[in-house]
Amino acid sequence: MIAFDRKFEKEIKEVGNTLLIPLSSIDDLLTLLDKVFVLSCIIEIIWITAPDAPYKDEQMKEIFQLILAAFENMSHVSTRSYKKVVSILDTIEKVKLCLMMLDLECDALVVEMFQSFLKIIRSNHPPFVLLAIETIMNPVIDESEDISLDRLSSLFAIVTKEN
């Protein structure tokens, strides 16, 4: 079981790191996103085990980073990966996974997630996607003990820039 966990962890890291590098073609992206289907499976495992985390804190932080990388693809509504990312978003909303981010003190990731949401929100998204984003953001704001002025400024800068 430990060997499986290490192999799984290695694969997740490889896919996550690959997502951080711009790909040369749509086909390369689609191939990689098929591997990111692993992320969908991980999210489902988290949903099944909620409210308990099925992985160690450090592994959960890596999963959160993969989730954020996946959110970057939400701006492309017409792509094949859009449905997968929306499914991930839906599950995150249902299990309130973002509150776990607060529990693990992943404040920088929370801000990055908010920034991603604010960058990708467009009128071409179905209403349920916008509602899911709102449903994720509201409890995180409510549960945040202290939101620094710097973080708020960075969020407002995106809102005003993107209008």
UniProtKB/TrEMBL annotation:
What subcellular locations does the record give? Nucleus
Name of this chain's protein: Sister chromatid cohesion protein pds5
Keywords tagged on the record:
DNA damage, DNA repair, Nucleus
The UniProt entry's GO CC annotations, sorted and at most eight, read:
chromatin; nucleus
- Enumerate the Gene Ontology biological process terms: DNA repair; mitotic sister chromatid cohesion
Pfam families the record matches = PDS5
